[in-house]
Amino acid sequence: MELSLIGRHLEQLGEASTTGFTFQCYPIPGEVEVLRVMVDGREELPLFISVSDDQILCISYLWDESQVDPNRRQAMLEAMLDMNIPMPLSAFARLDDWYVVFGALSLNSSLADLEHELAVLSDNCLEVIEDMAEFLL
What we know:
The chain is α+β, with helices and mostly antiparallel strands. The chain has one domain: Yope Regulator, Chain: A. The protein contains 3 helices and 6 strands. It starts with a helix and ends in a 5-residue tail after the last helix.
């Protein structure tokens, strides 16, 4: 699946969206092509999509290490592990100094599946930030 196809599909959904969200997409050129997806009303938490040979990866950056209360870091990591399984279609990771939530889909996933994953990932980001606020500065 090509990122340009994904971007066109998401932007053209409008009221046909099954998730109730509208999307704005911006390609980011580079060695690995990435699509920045803005969910209307949630612009502060963009989603980033990349396509590899075997999966579609959707990531949202939450906060960086400098925003974590050092005295609460261990408790935060334990809370993230506890939250990982009950958080549908998403998981935690760390990229460099950034904590992220991500989801992966098969290359055979439909565009409707991708729209659903992005909506769930966006919802999960809001929930995570609310639940983890006590661990942040």
